[in-house]
């Protein structure tokens, strides 16, 4: 029993000297808000997984259906018309259109707005075409075929289960559907049957100018003509002509000329007899083509590309669209371009879904900042503790024992003083792999020098005090003196140094991370800013730049405020009203 | 006694468990480390590695991604062959249009340390075809061999071609016109002095760049940037047209006299920038000197050359050791003509101090100055034999700190064109600038993921063909490259229309297909979901 | 110990420290790194070419020989050949150092002149709201990382308002015959404003706060009472006597700051594309240009040591109680 209470007694001075700092912090007009702020940030760090709204690494996608109307010769504003990507659209007449897309979505435009219609399937629909307002087909994945009879859509039997990608309906008793692996199906008025195909390549689209004539296009530059029941393979591919790129869409005018387009900005023209290469201003994927007349046609593609044909050549239009197009249909000068694939939500300013917006790869910045608090606090606290412990120990030893030991240690400190932090960390990273430990090591190795010096000078002055001398005379050993008499007295100072060190470590970690010296896939406020700078988007993406910096500042400020209130403890003259200053009696 | 026994039992059980777990893990497909570039060097390759990691981990393969500083990456990949899987890229320079170079990257001769086939691909049929195509002068026949080689190699997937990346560049359309972009070269081609015409106030074309030559010593420079600069003031016997046809240039005519002899008649109206005439002596000297100085960078080009013989004042014979299909298009178009009177006394060309390097050439532009990390300048050579075709007075280069700085220079109008590609974020911004025109130029080079074929699992063709279905090619193009690129298929890029084989097998991204193929090859999954060897 | 002895001793210390760091750096590099010739490889240089490079840079000699060659060269001002630039490092790196200094000094001078003045004002307005907001404001300035404020300033002044240049030291191209010629121009000043302002704001807070602290301390001391007894106005007392004593910790802080500032320059130079040592060392890491990285590092360490040494001297001059002066005040 005696042992225990003795030990308790031995620790008492430590507890006493620890109480004082906390009291001081809370009492101080600056220390209190500082500590509240710090606790808030700590809270954020601990609960980061809960506070984060997304996985910080995931590239977020918007999945929506969009449509851009083409009316009276002009392209209009693109708007969101559904919550699933759309794959194809068909103009029934100026003012009426249908669009179909993922998960069987069917949308109907009645002249004013798009309205979702009931769909008999929930499988992705790839293509839609109408003969009249009362007759049309849509086809899709797994051989799905649905029919519109004027009232509603119903599923009809299909002879295949292969993905169907295109359909054309020139009459009520004649239609063609095409799909992967060269699949060609024919509608004879009552059912669909599979025809023998001249190719095994994927067929992506079919366009019919009449029940007897049409064109099919597909993968690897496949072009097939349909004339009165016969298929003729018109694909051409020499070294320098033709194309081996996938063709996605085709349109032929009533006069007999037409265009097909596809991958890599490929455009081929048809003059009624032959196909020929056309110069294309784009090199990215093009997905739809629509003809107005001999001097006007349009092609749409990914990333909102719209190309215009003026009778001679194709040129890029700058309409400001960002969403990808997946299909286009123009009839009698009226049409729609629709899309879009899951659209990576890049560089989005703050929205309800993404409180701090997104990065150039669509990553949620709010979540990154939340997780970043963990790195900042862990590195900050661990490093500061490391620094403090080393500094205190060395300061104690140096100040107490003096002489040789002191000399050597202070020489080492001098050497460390010559090393600038950032270049040192850079050199370390040059030699080893970038990792969190390197950052902690670099900051730690170079920061204990100030700590040690300060502690040392305090110890030096303490050692001269009478009560130490008395203890010595009483026969107390060195260790005992250090632990029992000196250590508790430097604790406030050490605590202050700890607070300062935390602030410094957080800033240093942010700096080193900003320079790109941190490990990959680690989210720290500094790495977020690093990524912002690298992407080139930092000039305009203020939502990316401001939050991490604000958080760093707030965290460091809170620590500074705390440390300032501790300074008052070690230097009482700074407390309000204690000094005689001119003008304040 | 009891104590000891139970301790013994515990130890035995422990050892047994240890042994079991070791053997269990012994059958597992080993963890692979993919080495790639750092985010700062190339965010595309960096992100790409992580995308692949995510996909493969779904198949039960453990993957670690290790970004390395570029030179460390190159060193470990080529010189030490110390890697499991590496993501590296080849730039498509004009001299690589001839399939020789890229086909050579899978040749067994290049398997040694430092060679271009660090993965260690060895296929005798491939090697044999390589030998044949190198000697075949008939382009159509040669093409057959080249197509077949691509078929063989891509079926075995010793590497996966990830993508071909478009070079997207910008130029100021208000200051100069007439740019002719060349695949693999972008806007910064050797035809620049002849193509562009001033339409603004200045007759000096300003190029913005963040890259600069390592040095300007034609017998020492080993970088793209050094040579793009020097080829503007040095001339060559032959130039490759924008359609990659060899045009006689310093040579008036180039004719194959027989299988191994090429007769070259040089022009008689050429001068060096110091006024001295360009003679057959200089031409012969240039080639002999390259060989004598053993300039390793060009060795593949001059190796086939046995000797250069001067026939008369204007004529030379190049005698080759054996028929070499690429000699005219590559060698004659790359080796610069050096002034003999300035170089003949220099014994060790590669040890010259920067101030002592002669900068006199016979090209359309004259060297003016090179202020390291800041500025370079070339001026028009008025006495050039085609000086009338050059409308500009000078070309200057402003060297910025990084891509950021370069782009700012374009926006402010300080620079007329960029030498290097724009970053994806900058492309969108540039497209919105009124005075900038953005062009997209496909590349002959490619980015690839090469397997170290000496390692278990990676040495198995079926394994590689299966995991080829787990590489998200389309995501690289759609997301990382913003659509400006093409999915990787063959080691000869599609833009190289004559030599590219469009029918090489394509492995669609389909994890179910990958699993199916792995199963068929005998791989299986254990209870932890990890993939195991058959 | 007399002044002279103190100075000599400190100088020796400095040199020894420098040597130790230099040696440490050399060996750490040589022993821990992969083959340095890889820095010269751009996509597939043949093995023979690499051997040639190895010989040229003396990398085929035994390690200890390389060390002495390096040491000898260094003190002759010869820093070797840059792997990346393929030319001598020395001229490049001297110029970079001047560029760094020409940014660092104006900035620190601004912060260490405005800071203390503000600190004095704050101490004067003890207990007022001005003081409170001054302290908090100062802390905020010090907490915001300098690279972040730099980016914000560029965004604000350079892009949105478009009134200040956003990168570099001069608008290229420019003609300049030497360093001084390059720097004594309006164009340079224009480029200097943003980065210098950023750095100055960051470093201003600490001297301001310290000045305030020590002013408050000093105000309570006896000798101020003495001055008051002489009948001088309060203001004179404050600025002349109190400030002089209060300056001491500020100078101490300045010394520490300069040591940190040299390293901190790295981020500022990166953000502003300022062609100084900081940016150079980052670039040399990217290209694994080891000799360049070493040279930059040693120069930066050297700068820190020289600054510390000068600060020590200044400190000694200002504080009559410092060790080396016998006989006190």
Q: How does this model look, in words?
A:
The complex is a heterotrimer of chains A (585), B (534) and C (329). Chain A is of the alpha+beta class. In chain A, strands 2, 3, 4, 29 and 30 form a five-stranded antiparallel sheet that branches. A four-stranded antiparallel sheet of chain A has the order 5-6-7-8, with no helix packed on it. In chain A, helix 9 packs parallel to helix 10. The longest helix of chain A has 37 residues, at 365-401. Chain B is built from 17 helices and 23 strands. In chain B, helix 5 packs antiparallel against helix 6 and helix 15 (461-467) runs antiparallel to helix 17 (511-520). By secondary structure, chain B is an alpha+beta fold. Chain B is 32% helix and 21% strand. Chain C is globular. The two termini of chain C are 15 Å apart. The relative contact order of chain C is 0.14. Chain A binds chain B through residues 59, 220, 237, 239-240, 244, 263-264, 282-285, 302-303, 318, 341, 344, 347, 360-361, 430, 433-434, 516, 520-521, 530-531, 533-537, 540, and chain B through 38-40, 43, 46-47, 50, 65-67, 69, 166, 403-404, 407, 423-426, 429, 431, 440, 442, 478-480, 482-484, 486, 494, 497-498, 502-503.
Strands side by side in the biggest sheet of chain B: 2-1-3-20-4-21
Instruction: State the separation between the terminal residues of chain C, measured CA to CA.
Output: 15 Å
Work out the helicity level of chain C: over 70%
- Euclidean distance between termini CA atoms of chain B: 46 Å
From the alpha carbons, calculate the radius of gyration of chain C and give it in angstroms. Answer: 24 Å
The rounded Rg of chain B comes to 27 Å
* Element-level helix/strand string of chain C: HHHHHHHHHHHH
- Give the oligomeric state: heterotrimer
Helix-strand category of chain B: alpha+beta
Q: What general form of chain B does the structure show?
A: globular
Mean pLDDT value of chain B: 87
* Biggest sheet architecture of chain B: 6 strands, mixed
**Poorly predicted regions of chain C:** 37-46, 322-329
Count of DSSP-assigned helices of chain C: 12
Tell how many strands the DSSP assignment of chain B holds. 23
**Helix proportion of residues of chain B, in percent?**
25-40%
